[in-house]
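Please produce the structure of this protein holding glycinamide ribonucleotide.
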Amino acid sequence: MTKRGSETERAKRAVILISGNGTNMAEIVKAQRRGDLDADIALVISDNADAPGLRRAEGFGCRTAVTPYAAGVPREENERGILEAIAQSGADWIVLAGFMRILSGDFVRRFPGRIVNIHPSLLPAFPGAHAIKDAFMARADFTGVTIHIVDELVDHGPVIAQEEVPILPGDTLETLEARIHAVEHRLYPKTLQALLNEDL
Ligand code: GAR
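Below is the modeled complex.
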């Protein structure tokens, strides 16, 4: 019997953390609305008040929170706002969708195995904030998309899905980015559905 069939089990509750465009967040919310993702998207959190993704989330009617980071302050201190927002939301899963801050070990240890990240390369190749450009500049034959559980190292942790994306002879950085994002948008909602509903 699936979790959905159980009367006592409520849908998994997730918060989505973003920093920028929020196109992956949008695809996750759309999948949930279509009935392809059994999850409650309790809150969309951004560290950046100007993130276009916040407007997208509001457009979907999602609850949003902004938890800005201050310069020169320890990570743990900057994370307090996020932790409070998560606690209030009652979420048990944290979905990183273009969240461009490194989480502290303290943060990660609070949610063991419950933080998921998407990264635009085939990890461990091309970690970091410019993975698509780095693969393009390295003239690699292929790159890809990785979805993984977050551990205490950066862009690291158990891989739950990976898909290769070829770098074609005529590619520009823009055409490569567009193909990688298309893969992300298909793969992330589908992988979350399997992960949150224990089909992985
Ligand atoms: C995505 O390509 C995601 O894989 C990447 O940021 C982009 C966010 O796009 N994440 C990382 O590079 C994390 N290291 P979006 O805001 O439109 O979803």
